[in-house]
Amino acid sequence: MPLYVYSITAATHPCRLDGLTGVGAEPAPVRAITAGPLRAVVSDIDEEIRPKRRDLAAHQEVQDRLMADGTVLPLQFGYTAPDDEAVTQVLRERAEGYLAALDKVQGCAEYQVKASQDEDALLLEVLQGSDRARQLNDRIRAGDADPRLPLELGEIVATDVRERQEDLAAGLIEALLSLAEDHRVRAPADGDILNISLLVHGDDKAAFLRAEAGLAERSEDVRFRFTGPLPPYSFV
């Protein structure tokens, strides 16, 4: 029977799954498949699983339950397998890599840091810092219909945004990355100018949160959004 796969853990993980039901219109109990030193946490499914709100919540509930009791390799939403035998085979074939990954994230959680800046404030700073940008903006506002003007202004703004992203990343390296075991930088989306995930050990959690707070306090026109602790999705 097809399976939905949530996570991989060590075989020594307690996997307290009593009462948990999985994804799907008719959720099946969540259970574990053990193969040597590893376990896969799964539930039976009889349909294609789509990212509906209820299923996303069920997926995350399993991760939270497991993470509360030990180290876990959380899989992104949507992983499936044909049957128990296929899962067992993968656990055996990839045991070395999974064990190394478990060792890497042991005692750690993921924290996400995103940053954005008001577009009007950003444009004002660009105009204040670039004579050429200010000239282009003045011509556009005066009614100059030359289609090259907004293109050139857009390029100047985009370059400035990239530079700001690099500056923010440099600041994070100093303020946060020294407290992280690892990090992943992603392309910003939805108007953000920074998107980074950090792997932080529990022993460094308090210091990391203090550094986060200090970073936000020092930023006048940049709005930071901090999320965590989360299962270490980005580091599996």
TrEMBL record:
**What single Pfam family name could you report for this chain, choosing any that match?**
GvpL_GvpF
Which family is it part of? Belongs to the gas vesicle GvpF/GvpL family.
What organism does the record attribute this protein to?
A: Streptomyces narbonensis
Localization, UniProt: Gas vesicle
The entry's keywords: Gas vesicle
Q: Which InterPro entries match?
A: GvpL/GvpF
Annotated protein name in UniProt: GvpL/GvpF family gas vesicle protein
